[in-house]
Specification:
It is built from nine helices and 19 strands. With 366 residues, it is an alpha/beta fold. It is globular, with a radius of gyration of 21 Å. The two termini are 29 Å apart.
């Protein structure tokens, strides 16, 4: 079969939910109607459905079954609260419908084990883990794939939280479902919080804040360090930092040190070409990212003037469409999403125990 990317029509999907995260999937379809199309929105009540229809101009339904009847889409996006996500996934699978689940797929390890036992064998469930598809991370992963850093042994993530950070760490290290020894440490301090999700706070008063630092030992010389500060997603007083260390060099966010040959060590940067800056009139958009003159990432979503997170989510949607039509690899299987969240929960377990804990192999790892 041809892939969704090759088809003349757009990738077509139902969005279950109409909250903050669901808005990403709905807005992207507005920006790129020739590539993405929302066929229906699932809301729990008719009142919420009427509000969604007015906001997005898309028909609504109360159940997944009703949303996919008649005009059957390529897949369902489950962008609902954690407590509701497993039921949405089960409804989609019961209707033999591929489903893209927001993270995490269930609220705890027992919930993920139960969900896997119910739907894992179907092969219909993918997780909307967009962080490895961020332009900067995709460029870093391309350097790793190209062997610029040699064999990667250590990854440090001071950027996003929990399962998202685990996805980056595992992907960059090349770790699958291996057990991990997890040691977490929690510290508290004061920190000004000038900006939050809703915008600028207009308050520079230092407030109580916390930091979670956690070490992961995956064996075979592969380790990771998780470093996350309260509200680090938005607080610009804490910078994002990615460190990848390999046998032939290391990468610190966008700066790379590596060997060219036996007598040459080079220092170079990942260079982002952002259009619309100063006297560039191409429109404000990301063009590409280069390394030592070679393009290691090219933005396939130009014209939307998207943020990096939106580019990544759009890429997940298109990969999902291609996968459904047998045109590409699975975007991010449920098993990987479960593994990421199990590792994140192990940090909480280590804090509670005040000691190192070791994860154990779960059903999805088989």
């Amino acid at each position: 079969m041809t892939s969704a990317v090759e088809n003349a029509g757009p990738v077509r999907y139902v969005v279950a939910g109409n909250g903050w995260r669901a808005g990403f999937y709905l807005r992207l379809a507005r920006f790129f109607p020739e590539r993405l199309q929302v066929t229906a929105i699932v809301t729990p009540t008719a009142e919420l459905g009427a509000a969604a229809e007015e906001q997005w101009g898309v028909p609504t339904a109360r159940t997944v079954k009703d949303a996919i009847s008649g005009d059957r889409p390529d897949f369902v996006v489950a962008a609902v609260p954690w407590s509701v996500t497993p039921q949405m996934i089960r409804e989609a699978v019961a209707a033999d419908m591929p489903v893209l689940s927001e993270t995490p797929p269930a609220p705890d390890v027992p919930g993920m084990v139960e969900l896997w036992s119910q739907v894992g064998a179907s092969g219909l469930v993918q997780v909307a883990e967009q962080y490895p598809l961020y332009p900067g991370h995709a460029a870093r992963l391309q350097l790793i794939k190209n062997g610029v850093l040699g064999t990667v042994s250590n990854v440090q993530v001071a950027s996003t939280h929990q399962y998202h950070a685990m996805a980056l760490m595992r992907t960059m290290l090349g770790v699958g479902f291996e057990d991990a020894a997890v040691t977490a440490h929690h510290s508290e301090f004061t920190l000004a919080n000038p900006i939050a999700r809703d915008g600028w706070t207009m308050d520079l008063t230092p407030l109580p804040a916390w930091n979670l630092l956690s070490h992961f030992d995956f064996g075979d010389g592969r380790t990771g360090l998780y470093d996350f500060t309260d509200n680090q997603w938005h607080n610009e007083l804490r910078s994002n930092r990615i460190l990848v260390r390999g046998s032939l060099g290391e990468l610190v966010t966008d700066h790379v040190v590596h060997v060219r040959d036996e007598l040459t060590v080079l220092e170079s940067d990942l260079v982002r070409r952002q259009m619309g800056v100063d006297m560039n009139f191409e429109g404000f958009d990301l063009d590409h990212i280069t390394f030592e003159g070679d393009v290691v990432y090219r933005n396939a979503w130009q014209g939307g003037r998207l943020a990096d997170d939106e580019i990544a989510v759009a890429s997940v949607l298109e990969q999902m469409g291609a996968w459904v039509h047998d045109g590409g690899p699975a975007p991010y299987p449920l098993a990987d999403g479960c593994q990421d969240y199990m590792l994140a929960l192990a940090m909480d377990e280590s804090l509670a125990a005040g000691a190192t804990v070791r994860t154990t192999r779960q059903l999805w790892a088989s």
